Amino acid sequence: MLCRTTKITHRGTGASLETPLLVPSFSSKGFSRSSTRGESKNGEFVSGLHRQFAAVGEYITDTVLVSAFDIHHGYLPMPDKLPSYPEILFLDSGGYEVSDYADLSDIEEPIPKTELWTEDLYKGVIAKWPEEKAVVFVSYDHPDERRDFADQVKAARDLFRPFPNHLRTLLLKPETTSQETINETLKTAMAKASELKHFDIIGVTEREVGNSPSIRMLNIAKLRRAMDDAGLTGVPIHVFGALDPLSATLYFMAGAEIFDGLTWLRYAYKEGRCLYTHNHGPVQFGLLEKDKGARALTQADNLRELLKIQGTLREFKHMKDFSKLVKLGAWPGAEKFFSDAYDSLDTQLNGRAK
Fold first, then answer.
1. CB 213 within 8 A of CB 185
2. CA–CA separation, 125 vs 77, rounded Å?
3. Which residue has the higher pLDDT, 272 or 297?
């Protein structure tokens, strides 16, 4: 099996985490409650997104993903002003906020943010990042600026060079603005996998790595195997925008180890599935619970559920027992579903089923 656990360690602080990691994300894009900007009130940072972060901050201790775009434009403060700081924080480069890219969990096409965003503005955020705050920087991307694989690697190396103590993620992106997937990028990346040695983590977005669950699993597995063949067995793959329990489990079986997304803010996690929050609330918390309270309780429960899922995936990795995954999908036939999914992947990779 290609699934694995990896210890990632921040060189500057010694902070470390073990994969698999299911990383809750925050973004000003697609959430009207988060659209207000920060402003000073009695010396405190105030914004819709900041309030959202503060409401669940006590439950987030290991890791979280935020956007440099949101920090620069005042939706979130710099790290020393956050209400809480995790063991290691993932800092996305802001391309998601200014694009029309929609996660597969979006219920409508999100409206891109209209504020200016450039690589220089991103550099301004990371240049101010405190050395004592463990962080993973993600390579810069913008929907209007595309590069071939070689230039993506070069640009990321140049960006990260002044910050040797922080962790570095190369996010693989389409090579041209007309491409909707990273198929061409992946072909070159797999052929030149040794070039990925300059980074601590390799990222792909769920939507761009394939147009079906099967193809996404296969492309992740091919990338994982190419990296292993190049001696990069300890460099994890991060699937951006994939935080629902089912998809994370499938991609974990294919060799990915880090998953983030906004799903935990949009839905309720229950028995391995995502449920409509306003159906989940009355059943879980009672008919008298107000909508706002039910949403907050659901999000707190979701964060606890993410930790349980991480534990279950680690147990599956060690035991290689598909019955362990029933914890993630308590519907009839769940064990067979995951087993068949793995067998299908193995057949596509190796031409035979196990």
1. no
2. 11
3. 297
Cβ atoms < 10 Å from Cβ of 42: 5
Which of 81, 94, 114 lies closest to 26 in space, CA to CA?
Answer: 94
pLDDT range class, residue 11, cuts 50, 70, 90:
very high
Using CA atoms, how far apart are residues 206 and 208, in angstroms rounded to an integer? Answer: 6
pLDDT given for residue 49 in this prediction:
84
**Residue tagged 């992106």 (tokens):** 173
DSSP assigned state of 323: G
Token look-up 């599956």 returns: 316
CA dihedral for 263, 272, 276, 101, sign (positive or negative): positive
**Do 141 and 118 form a contact (C-beta atoms < 8 A)?**
no
What's the CA dihedral at 138, 139, 141, 147 to 10 degrees? -150
Identify whether the C-beta of residue 250 lies closer than 8 Å to the C-beta of residue 213: yes
Specify the higher pLDDT residue, 278 or 231.
231
Greatest C-alpha distance within the chain: 66
Between CA 18 and CA 217 the distance in angstroms is 22
The label of the residue with tokens 């907050």 reads 296
